[in-house]
């Protein structure tokens, strides 16, 4: 019997994780110490972030309670939502959170005022509005998307909170707005105290990131030319470049106004992406051994891109007075996923209302508020299915910890000092978990909703019945949203790969149109961002398919760059009319058939080389570069992988 008990215990919590390991940690565990390294051996920066955020959350809670606000628990939730590892991220998120809160409060008041006695119309309009916010957020980037979804779920929180007392909807909206602003201010105050040398640190981080990316690109270019780099290596470097590009906005915010460092940094990264595309073409020419002299002009263009990147990095390090440089990288907009996001959120709100309408659940209004809130938090995730699983597990941990606090700890708290001591420890642990990628998904829901489930108040506390109803509404909402993401128009990375491949092929053909205004930088940044997004979500895709897809996308990036070059050359008046006509004929075939037109590339290149004989030096140089681009297009087409659209 003893042996059976030991075996049962090992199967539950043994070294491989067992049932509890799969439930709470998502899979087998190597060792307890390695799994808890984020808690037992935190870095100095992780500890500073956790302590800073915990103190800010507790400070906002104490101020809200001192102001006699009715629901002070929403203030620390705001702190954990806004708190980020860098001050620039916090500033950006706080700015859009305040804007979204103000607009959401106004929409919530308007909905209650428009449909005070018509619940069906009220929830239909609320569902459509949240669907529009979640769908529209797909077209925005960074925390702008968060600001839009925040508008949706803030309006839901205000409106559903006023269902029982519609005459007080304005007071409820003002209270919710106060909590948001209070949380933002507290987080900003603690961040300033913990990071006094903000501008210098931000500039150093930006320069370190750019110089690191530059060295990585140089290494990959060297490997490409020597034939040692494959598509996976190129994809990894592009992932690093796009990650650095996403951080530029936050560093620029920390550096303060009056600087164009962000524009120069974007331009430097765009030049690095162009270097990769050029190097790939040069490597293919070397492999094909088509015409050896054709590879001569390419290194000059390659070094020119290197110089452009260095110049922009230097402009970031030493800004010049009167600098008016502007640059913006673009990324693809996902229309189908936006529609799916909107439809899913809209149907989810309507289904939640029907559940409340049929069951008459006393916590139905809270359930719908939580549903809208979780939809908003998940809507900006690239793969909501992957994000919803750790979010649910973090919610289970949150409910467990909140039960201990609400039922045993909080009744014994008699002074603010005791409250600080009681909450500081668990919030610091949550802050440390948020800094480790393996546990960040759990901490995401744990940190935000722990104060909400505890429900601290000035003169009262949650009764056991109220706590369990609130916790049940929260867990039911998280589970409900997770299942809707799996059942209603689920995100599938394989279908997303096929859609992106078709989109890339269509855009590649359209680049040859004389009316196209897509620049090289736009094409490369859109293609790179689409490729990187898929790589982040392609863990379940077999390696051969993933590598073939990466090869296809890298090939399309290089071909598109040269098509844009040919389109611009065809308009250059320095070239003879016959040469421009020949290039236009090739571009017309490309616009009709796409990469199949490369069958004419070598013929057109040979004809242009003959046109260059005896031409002026400037004209000869342009014709030689044009012929080289055509040879690269032919080499790229012959290197076509086996990925099927």
TrEMBL record:
Compartment(s) of residence: Cell membrane
Chief place where the protein resides: membrane
Organism name: Acetobacter orleanensis
GO molecular function: transmembrane transporter activity
Cellular component per GO, a single term: plasma membrane
Membrane topology recorded in Swiss-Prot or TrEMBL: Multi-pass membrane protein
Residues passing through the membrane, by range: 96-114, 120-140, 145-164, 176-195, 334-355, 361-379, 391-408, 414-434, 441-459, 471-489
UniProt keyword annotation of Lyase present: no
Keyword annotations of the record: Cell membrane, Membrane, Transmembrane, Transmembrane helix, Transport
Cited InterPro entries: PHBA_efflux_AaeB/fusaric-R
Pfam families: FUSC
Identification of the protein by name: Fusaric acid resistance protein
This protein's record includes keyword Transmembrane: yes
């Amino acid at each position: 019997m003893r042996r059976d008990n030991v075996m049962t215990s090992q199967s539950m919590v043994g070294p491989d994780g067992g049932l509890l390991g799969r439930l709470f940690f998502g899979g087998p565990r190597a060792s307890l110490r390695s799994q808890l390294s984020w808690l037992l051996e935190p870095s100095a920066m992780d500890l500073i972030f956790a302590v800073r955020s915990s103190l800010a959350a507790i400070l906002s809670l104490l101020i809200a309670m001192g102001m006699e606000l009715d629901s002070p628990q929403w203030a620390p939730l705001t702190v954990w939502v806004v708190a980020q590892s860098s001050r620039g991220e916090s500033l950006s998120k706080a700015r859009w959170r305040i804007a979204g809160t103000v607009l959401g409060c106004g929409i919530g008041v308007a909905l209650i005022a428009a449909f005070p006695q018509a619940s069906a119309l009220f929830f239909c309009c609320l569902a459509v509005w949240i669907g529009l916010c979640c769908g529209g957020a797909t077209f925005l980037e960074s925390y702008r998307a968060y600001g839009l979804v925040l508008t949706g779920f803030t309006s839901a929180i205000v409106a559903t909170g006023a269902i029982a007392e519609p005459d007080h909807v304005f007071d409820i909206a003002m209270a919710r707005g106060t909590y948001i602003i209070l949380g933002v201010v507290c987080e900003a105050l603690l961040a300033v105290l913990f990071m006094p040398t903000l501008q210098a640190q931000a500039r150093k981080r930006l320069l370190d990131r750019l110089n690191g990316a530059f060295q990585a690109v140089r290494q990959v270019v060297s490997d490409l030319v020597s034939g040692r780099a494959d598509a996976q290596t190129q994809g990894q470097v592009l992932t690093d470049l796009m990650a650095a590009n996403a951080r530029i906005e936050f560093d620029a915010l920390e550096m303060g106004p009056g600087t164009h460092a962000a524009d120069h940094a974007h331009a430097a990264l765009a030049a690095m992406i162009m270097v990769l595309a050029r190097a790939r073409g040069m490597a293919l020419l070397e492999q094909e051994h088509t015409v050896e002299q054709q590879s001569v002009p390419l290194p000059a263009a390659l070094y020119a891109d290197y110089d452009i990147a260095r110049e922009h990095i230097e402009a970031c390090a030493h800004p010049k007075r009167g600098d008016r440089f502007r640059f913006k990288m673009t990324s693809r907009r996902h229309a189908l996923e936006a529609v799916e996001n909107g439809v899913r959120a809209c149907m989810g709100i309507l289904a939640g209302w029907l559940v409340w309408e049929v069951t008459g659940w006393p916590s139905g209004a809270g359930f719908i508020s939580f549903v809208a809130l979780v939809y908003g938090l998940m809507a900006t995730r690239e793969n909501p299915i992957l994000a919803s699983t750790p979010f649910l597990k973090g919610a289970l941990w949150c409910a467990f910890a909140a039960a201990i606090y609400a039922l045993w700890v909080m009744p014994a708290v008699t002074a603010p000092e005791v409250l600080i001591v009681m909450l500081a420890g668990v919030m610091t642990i949550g802050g440390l978990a948020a800094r480790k990628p393996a546990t960040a998904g759990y901490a995401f829901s744990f940190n935000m909703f722990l104060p909400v489930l505890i429900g601290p108040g000035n003169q009262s506390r949650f009764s056991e019945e109220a706590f369990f109803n609130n916790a049940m509404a929260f867990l039911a909402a998280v589970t409900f949203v997770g299942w809707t993401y799996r059942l209603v128009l689920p995100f599938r990375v394989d279908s997303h790969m096929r859609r992106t491949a078709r989109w890339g092929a269509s855009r590649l053909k359209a680049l040859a149109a004389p009316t196209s205004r897509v620049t090289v930088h736009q094409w490369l940044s859109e293609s790179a961002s689409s490729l990187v997004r898929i790589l982040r979500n392609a863990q379940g895709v077999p390696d051969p398919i993933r590598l073939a897809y990466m090869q296809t996308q890298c090939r399309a990036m290089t071909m598109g760059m040269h098509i844009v070059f040919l389109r611009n050359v065809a308009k250059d008046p320095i070239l003879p009319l016959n040469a421009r006509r020949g290039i236009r004929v090739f571009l017309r075939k490309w616009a009709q058939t796409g990469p199949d037109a490369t069958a004419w590339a070598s013929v057109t290149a040979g004809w242009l080389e003959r046109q260059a004989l005896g031409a002026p030096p400037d004209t000869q140089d342009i014709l030689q570069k044009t012929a080289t681009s055509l040879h690269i297009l032919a080499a790229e087409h012959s290197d076509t992988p086996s990925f099927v659209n």
